[in-house]
Amino acid sequence: MYLVSCILFFSSCSSWFNLGILGILAHFRHYFIMLSAAEKTLIEVNDVHKSFAHNHVLRGLSLAIRQGESMVVIGGSGTGKSVLIKCIIGILSPDRGNIFVAGQDIGSLKEKDLYQLRKKFGMLFQAGALFDSMKVWENVGFGLLQHTTLSKKEVKKRAIEKLNLLGLHQIEDLMPSELSGGMRKRVSLARAIAMEPEILLYDEPTTGLDPIRADTINALIVEMRKKIKVTSITITHDMVSAYKVGDRIAMLYQGKIIEVGTPDEIKNSTSAIVQQFIQGKAEGPITQAEAQI
Length: 293
Ligand SMILES: Nc1ncnc2c1ncn2[C@@H]1O[C@H](COP(=O)(O)OP(=O)(O)OP(=O)(O)O)[C@@H](O)[C@H]1O
Ligand SMILES: [Mg+2]
Fold this sequence. Notes:
The protein has 293 residues and is an alpha/beta fold. The chain contains 14 helices and 10 strands. The two termini are 40 Å apart. Bound molecules: adenosine-5'-triphosphate (ATP) and magnesium ion. Residues 52, 55, 57, 75, 77-83, 126 line the site of adenosine-5'-triphosphate (ATP).
């Protein structure tokens, strides 16, 4: 869209300066390259369906995430948000439709190539998914221990740095069972960012945290995007977090993305479904539809 409007703008300039369209295009070629990079799609979900027995969860879901973008997915409990990101990372396979990551159709990849592609991702699982038999630092450094030649001492040092970044100090030698729920969440987040991946998937990163800790996590998500240009998908019910971290917000409802827009566009959405959800109202089209099931 930007590209088209730029071409129209510069072609109108051409008549003013009598330079001709080719001269103008050549002159501004680096701007075109920059703009098209900003628009490049890194993850594309096309008409994805996923059912579990008779439970048709995803029903033709499409969503495109641009490189370097922070996309937030909102939607009611049980609508399929976690299923969606598990499909994106290849833990679950769609029944129909395709998912492209960096141009690769993940459904057509062999196990070995899928394993390579997964290295691009860091994932914060909703339930944390820590290894209970490993110390905190071993959990955080798990990917580094598995996929790099770094010594245990170096991995531990890096794990401690990530833990400190998340406000966790001197817990590296504890076992997960010795942590509070909020601490476990932050340890999982430290593990997700430890490999400094290209793509981060955060499933409910602020749920269960006090408001100050939640805001620290929001700031971290924003920082990861700014500093290391990470592309991310954040799933959340927390609208404060959604507005803070999202370049765009997508609403999942009845198995499809029904609206995508900037935080301001979502706040001003004319959809009664979106408005009921973002305002957290008990009454509206979402609850009416549920009552009819
Ligand atoms: N492995 C599975 N086997 C069977 N059903 C599943 C499986 N995973 C998810 N489901 C079902 O798919 C639906 C969507 O689940 P999902 O976990 O994606 O919801 P969600 O939108 O993430 O909800 P929440 O906000 O509560 O985390 C639910 O009905 C759930 O029971
Ligand atoms: Mg979920």
